[in-house]
Amino acid sequence: MSADFATDRDIDRSLAAYDYELPADRIAQNPVVPRDSSRLLVVDAPPQFRHCVFRDLPTLLRSGDLLVLNDTQVIPARLYGHKVDRTKIADGAKVEVLLLEEQKPHCWLALVKPGKRLKPGAKIEFADRLTAQVVAIDTDTGGRLLQFNLPTEQSLLPWLSQRGVVPLPPYITNSEADPEQYQTVYAKRPGSAAAPTAGLHFTPELFDRLQAKGISHVTLTLHVGVGTFRPVESDDITQHKMHGEWLEVSPSVVEAIQQTKANGGRVIAVGTTAVRSLEAAAQTGTLQPYCGKTELFIYPGYQWRVVDGLITNFHLPKSSLMMLVSALIGRQRLLALYQEAIDQHYRFYSFGDAMLILPEATT
Questions:
Q1: Which of 31, 39, 248, 268 has the greatest number of CB atoms lying within 10 Å of its CB?
Q2: Domains in the chain: boundaries
Q3: What tens digit of pLDDT does each residue of 124-146 get?
């Protein structure tokens, strides 16, 4: 092993190596309309790249290629209530709750504000006399386990649809977007605390054009939770532990991928959540149907098993998502492409523009 290779590998493990400076005005506060009019940075064989528009996608892929999308649906996971204080006549402190995942019937892992006042045993009251009790503190996330006072056979989701708020990321501070604009047009399985944002650019008309070109698509499910957006805090990124997220890759998806590859087509994952789902389902060495949680953390040096190409948005500095994309095309090239996008006034993050990494870029 050469000294240069060892040095590059060590740098790739450093959290600081995934930092970049983004002007505040590049953070998209609203989505473009129509969805497929967003810009698309197309990454080809090194060092080539092109500036396109997302609706150009049918001309950029080949007949026989397969798109794999995440059909999770964002739930109205942000709730507002107050702490019940039996020692006072007036209502207690206001409480903000972000539901992350249901761990058992009506017991949800949640991030809460103010956390210091909500220790085990504390009770929160919401609208319509719905209450939840803090039963434990989750040491991995700093969140709380909340047990809601609902009958076993009753779901919390109908109440959320009436009283909950779709949670936009904290960097979106001045948005006029409607809640449905933070959902993909193919979302159908409720359970996410955040959208799989690479899919926000698709429209029904674009799917029709892709199909006419011979480019098909399948859907899997990964419910986006704290694992996706939790910051990496270890200076050595290999020490970071991903929080588990639930996913399902069905037998029909596995069959479609196998058939695509057998016919010489390429598998293009739409979003980092689709990437993690496919690669998690192939950790035995071959892609198999899978239903359960994954803590898979992909960073440079990862050995790819399924994914050939990727459609992705532009991600936060030092995020696990940047590290995943770096594993596909290299950290230095990714940072250079990000700088190109900044120079060309691309829009970043959830409501921003996209990048298409063609399979030629990964070889």
A1: 268
A2: 3-74+175-362, 78-163
A3: 999 988 999 999 999 888 899 99
